[in-house]
Each structure stands twice: as C-alpha cells, then as structure tokens.
Amino acid sequence: VQLQASGGGLVQAGGSLRLSCTASGRAFWPYAVGWFRQAPGKEREFVASIGWSADNPRYAVSVEGRFTISKDVVKKTIYLQMNSLKPEDTALYSCAAKSGSHGPYSNWGQGTQVTVSS
Fold first, then answer.
1. 107 contacts: CB under 8 Å, gap ≥ 6
2. Given a cut of 90, is residue 67 above it in pLDDT?
3. How many angstroms separate the CA atoms of 34 and 101, rounded?
4. Quick one: pLDDT at residue 107?
5. Own/partner pairs for 20-26, CB < 8 Å, 24+ apart?
6. Which value, to the nearest 10 degrees, does the dihedral of the CA atoms of residues 5, 81, 89, 46 take?
C-alpha cells in the first residue's frame, strides 16, 4: 500500500487549504491514519489522526479548532481541512497508517509542502 499526499501550496495567513491522502494498491483497512508535519530544522510532529472503522479524531493542541480530519473509506482517502492558517503551520505534511492501536505508523507517503506567508 502506498499513500500519496497532495493539496499543499502557498497561502496567506488566515487562509485555508485542504490536503488529501490517498491509498493505492491492495485492500486498505488500517486501524488509523494520521497526518504529520515537519518544519525545517525541526522534528516531525503529530498533527491529527482518525480511526478507519470508528472516527475518534485526535488533534495536536496547536491545531485543534482550526484543522479538521475526515475520511472517505470508499475512495481510500483522508482529508485535512486547514483553516485560519498561521506562518507556524508552514511544513512538509505527510500521512501514514498504522495497523493496530499500539503499533507504529508506517506506509509513509511523500509529503506535500504547505507554506503560510505572513
């Protein structure tokens, strides 16, 4: 299974973007899918996740109330709606999946760059 993120771009502070993460390949039924981001010179950090069978969305404190994660099981796609973007949201955004509640995230896809100008 491969995950491909898309939808990034350049946006002004206060603007919005919607990222997509689509799985390709064989049947895809993970335990959860997550969005992560990595800014230059910083470690990768968790942004949001959603369960594949049950939603149970989770968010990093820094994005809660501004970002919304959702999914389309038929399309094998996860979305990240990002509103009220801030310059500190600038990063490479990637998606990954995990097969169990305690397992690590894997199937990392190529990221999509989000740049927020002030």
1. 1, 2, 3, 23, 30, 96, 97
2. yes
3. 12
4. 83
5. 20/77, 20/78, 20/79, 21/77, 21/78, 21/79, 21/80, 21/95, 21/109, 22/75, 22/76, 22/77, 23/76, 23/77, 23/97, 23/107, 24/76, 25/1, 26/1
6. -70
* CA 95/CA 5 separation, integer angstroms: 7
Sign for the CA dihedral angle at 39, 19, 70, 29 comes to negative
Pairing of β 77-82 and β 17-24: antiparallel
Which tens digits make up the pLDDT trace of 78-116? Answer: 999 999 999 999 999 999 999 888 889 988 888 999 999
